[in-house]
User: Fold this.
Amino acid sequence: MSLIDRYIAEVGRHLPEKNRTDIEAEIRSMLEDMLEESGYQAKSAKEKVIAETLEQLGDPKLLASRYAPSRRYLIGPGWYDVYLQTLQRVLYIVLPIFATVTFILTLADNPLDFVNAVGEAVGGAFGVGLQILFWITIVFVFLECSDEVPQAQTRSKAWTVAQLPKVSHKRQISLGEALTDIVMDLFVFLWIALPLFQNWLQGDANPVPFLNPDLWNLWFPIFFVLMTLNLIHDVFKLKIGNWTPTLTATNVVLCLASIIYVVALVTTQQVINPTFLATLDSTQISELRNVTTWSTWTVNISAAILVGILIWDMVNSIRLSRRLNEQPGVLVITKNVL
Assistant:
């Protein structure tokens, strides 16, 4: 990619999306005019001449600020990037740990109360996230009001093209999407495995699990193999960020295998433990005439939704993979947010 393209892409990264295209076109035209005034054409100019022209325009971030609408900030441009990086790092580290620990502790008290455990984990993480957001924002507001300047800013020199970040293909798989998939894989894995290990550690010889214990003979081992393969696949999704042919083919195979597994499971096995249903029938929901029918419908509807999600995931990955091959020139700046 040429220096001009890299420079314009960096300017565009700091512009509002609604008028980014027009401003990028205006800057490109201005650069071509500057090169013509120097006696060169944009396509034939030497890289050294282009670099000197770009350095005349200066830092892409500052150039973008001249085009972007004026705003008033509690945290100004000097501290804003540092603020976002600090906030993201703290949230990405603290919230998953807090939610996981809360989920495990809540489920340990009552292995059957999965909904409550999820609610405690999500609600607690949300409250902690708000506290982190509030206090970090307060700290940076005080820094903005002080005479302090970010250390990176105090040591900065005149901008050069060497400071332009590398440019790569736009991520089709966002970091949030990939991380969410990984967390969900671990979450489901933990939900099924935790009650077994808890009963084993507590020495409970006669537990009443929610899921049918007979599934441990064959179906759960297959499930854990599929979940492990999906987890590895999602890690590669996080790393690669695009639906390459290999990643797409792997996704199709895993989706098909998961669909076959789900359909075979719900059509040949009783997923919910009959003993558990009998306990509910005699205690909590005795008003229901047929708990088994109710549980069967619940499992079937859940399986149908899951199969629909897997089909959509498979088709969407194929569609995005074809788009990636058809438009290899779509480029944006990648940024490490961790």
Observations:
- The longest strand covers residues 167-169.
